[in-house]
Write a structure and sequence with these properties.
478 residues, alpha/beta, Aminopeptidase
Length: 478
Amino acid sequence: MDLRSVGLTSAALLCAAVAHAQTPPPESAESRNALARGIFQELIEINTTDSVGNITTAAQAMGKRLLEAGYPAADLAVLGPNDRKKNLVVRLRGTGKRKPILLIGHLDVVEARREDWTTDPFKFLEKDGFFYGRGTQDMKEGDAIMVATLIRLKKAGFRPNRDIILALTADEEGGSSNGVAWLLKNHRDLIDAQFVLNQDGSSVVTEHGRPQFYEIDGTEKVYGDFQLTTTNPGGHSSLPVPDNAIYALAAGLGRLEKYEFPFELNSVTRAFYEQMSTIETGQRAADMRAILQTPPDLAAVARLSRDPADHSTMHTTCVATRLEGGHANNALPQRAQAVVNCRILPGHSPEEVRQSLISVLADPRITIKYIDENGVVQDKASDRKGFPPPPLSPEIMKPLQKLVAANWPGLKVVPTMSDGASDGVYTSAAGLPTYTITGIAIDRDDVRAHGRDERLGVESFYRGNEFFYQYLKALSSH
């Protein structure tokens, strides 16, 4: 061996030794689970309801964790329109070879009353294989997983081929300071990206613990609230009259209960039923094939519509969610009021639905107004329609299908439309293709988001934590 070869060999050994010294030790499953669990618990125990909670406290707590993990202060911002509703934006710097990925998650949660729950909704509790607390399904589990993922990537020295941006935001569930909308309007440069990954949901649909299919939300319904009001001169309760404000409103709501909006499929829901018809069996599978025909088999539509999930997938839905009336026990009501919440199929606007409600309620005594996203009541609703679904590109789908196959062998990846609503409506409107992708599994009969004793399976959380880490690495590796 000549001296040149010796020199090269020595240099190679030296570089290898330095690289080995700089490489962090491999993670254990216990350590990555402990990291995510600790973040999850901290978030659950910070009350972020609109009434008395504080989004800023949660945003600052997550920012502190990321700073301690090595993120420069210059790559992290806590900002918003007021002291209670500040959002966290953090950026993991990459090579810039490709445009950034934006991760979004809302920090706020729906109100929860202690007297309604069997446990304290703002105390993190692990019991019988579940984590309990407000936000365990919607959506502090996703927030915790995204923060844990960025911490792990930073500590591992991972340099992606693109920047990865995380935005944890306010007022998705209500309130007047929606964080995603505010950031897009005031700081678009902080969150501009090629596409968006939204953790607001679950992806693995299970039945009695057995995985049925993996869903990727490619579009969602439009959210709309409507205020229904009847008024009357009132009078003494000993002299009842048929023209009673409460009776008139109740009769109108009864007509709405019996009304069904027209059947309709779009490109995503049609693809959903095409795939599901190969997974389901018997009459249900036959009905799915029948509704795909031209014209669709309306008897099959009616049978499938008996299932609330299928009904919501195929129809716009409107349901009364709040009701109040009267001013004294011994007086005829002078006013009765209800809120009707609608989830509107893409391609239709809230104003279209308001006009439908006027027709269905069929009573000039009932006025129907729109409640905008800031809680302002308006005579006319928005004309904004749902946005067409973004393409399911190979860049998104190939690593997803590979990881789903590795984690749940044989499970099909099925495109779906979210029956609810999320902050994806704002990113989609801004021209940012948005996809809901998680590794969280929830049983069909255990969906407790917004409900009492909200919970998430411990194993589901840990598996979802690792799944998202691997998926994000696959999307951003060289």
